[in-house]
Write a structure and sequence with these properties.
The protein is of the alpha/beta class. It has a single domain, classed as Undecaprenyl pyrophosphate synthetase (3-Layer(aba) Sandwich), CATH 3.40.1180.10. Helix content is 45%, strand content 13%. A six-stranded parallel sheet has the order 3-4-2-1-5-6, with helices on both faces. Helix 3 crosses helix 4. The structure holds 3-methylbut-3-enyl trihydrogen diphosphate (IPE) (2 copies) and magnesium ion.
């Protein structure tokens, strides 16, 4: 009935009341790589007169649910923006809490991730991470490195501009040492020097909380990605919202510059 109504109205937009059924989404093309800017934890807490860190804690639980759903849908890679190179500007106590979250998340959920065949990876500058944070993520990466299901890729202390600069530095160094010739530089070689290598570029980018910007996230990789923005705050984001984003994605016509 809803489909008929939609066609009649000539609209492919879904209404708030419409429930997207997982089985229907599975009939369409599932984006292989989904990237999410998980934003709005602070505002979620503020609305409830709670400290900002309560929002981050709640957001962590959503990470678990969305990872499970993405894995069940057959998504191959899920990149989650967890901490940007600019987030160090925040109050020390908030930064310290955010740096404890990966451990808390992995202490609670790593066994489940292993069981579900999820492979954990990270992108970002590892050198500035506290030792305890790095230890937790490295253990998770090593414990899951042979898993063949969803790649759960955390962008932790990640900034796209800094990633691009460091790729340029590595390329310059490889030319100097004779490992590559400068004539070999092309888009595909450049991508290999980025932290996301060997992941394919995201098919779908989701940003929660109503902000319509990239905040230094995957500037190179998002060149032809489909964007889906929502006002929902990250701690309120549900499996149904993920289905909604994928459903919208399935109705887009990706042309990559062609006709
Ligand atoms: C996103 O939520 C989490 C991180 C950036 C670590 P915010 O903490 O940015 O929440 P808002 O944007 O202040 O609501
Ligand atoms: C982007 O959110 C970074 C993460 C979600 C980790 P921010 O909250 O830091 O972005 P701005 O400051 O609103 O652009
Ligand atoms: Mg924010």
């Amino acid at each position: 009935m809803l489909n008929i109504l939609k066609k009649w109205k000539g609209s492919s937009q879904t209404t708030k009341e419409e429930t997207i059924v997982k089985a229907d989404v599975l009939k369409g093309e599932i984006p292989e790589h989904i990237a999410i800017i998980m934003d709005g934890n602070g505002r979620w807490a503020k609305k409830r007169a709670l400290p900002r860190i309560a929002g981050h804690h709640e957001g962590m639980k959503v990470v678990r649910r969305i990872t499970r759903q993405a894995n069940e849908l057959g998504v191959k890679a899920l990149t989650l923006y967890a901490f940007s190179t600019e987030n160090w500007k925040r109050p020390k106590t908030e930064v310290e809490y955010l740096m404890k979250l990966p451990e808390e998340f992995l202490n609670t959920f790593l066994p489940e991730l292993i069981e579900e065949n999820v492979q954990v990876r990270i992108i970002g500058e590892k050198n500035r991470l506290p030792v305890h944070t790095l230890r937790a993520v490295e253990k998770a990466m090593s414990d899951t490195k042979r898993n063949t299901g969803l790649i759960l890729n955390f962008a932790l202390n990640y900034g796209s501009r800094s990633e691009i600069i460091s790729a340029v530095q590595k390329i310059a160094n490889d030319i100097k040492n004779g490992r590559i010739d400068e004539t070999a530089i092309n888009e595909s070689l450049f991508s290999e020097y980025l932290m996301t290598n060997p992941l394919k570029d995201p098919d779908l980018l989701i940003r929660t909380s109503g902000e319509i910007r990239l905040s230094n996230f995957m500037l190179w990789q998002l060149a032809y990605t489909e964007f889906w923005f929502t006002d929902i705050l990250w701690p309120d984001f549900t499996e149904q919202n993920l289905l909604e984003a994928i459903h919208t994605y399935q109705q887009r016509g990706r042309r990559f510059g062609g006709v």
